[in-house]
Amino acid sequence: MSVWMLLCHTYCWVLLVILVTLISEFSIPYNHFAFHGLLHMILVATFIIQKILVQDEGLRYFCSFAERFFALTRVMGTMVDKPVGEPSLRLLKHILRCYVRLSDCPRACDGFKISLPSKFRDATILNLIRDDLEALEWLRQLFVNIATGNRGSPPLIEETLSILPS
Hints:
- It is built from nine helices and no strands.
- Helices cover 77% and strands 0% of the residues.
């Protein structure tokens, strides 16, 4: 195992554990400052995972085993489908970039059949990113990546693409 893969393995699992812990902490009532502190920690951990995925070895790391892929998408899916309070556009953009990068791997497209957050296909997310052309393009690219390999449900993808602004 290369040094990169060893570091990636160690840090990725630590980041996922941190994210799971922080997400579970949202169920406990906090004051305003504690809540925003947790949100910033989640944002930083998600940003680091995004930067790992940008590297080809990082993408291979998460896509080489189903356990890793589903652990990551389960955590990110929870952040998308069950946000506490107002959804964060900044956090959503980092998560969306992670999903788009994962969709570069054909095996990940297979996994998205069962693990793509349902909120990516409804008006909640579209209303949040409506004014952000970059985020809209990433969402469109995610669905195109899934559809072009005949790896998703074409009617669902076509329906979702049709409601995205052109």
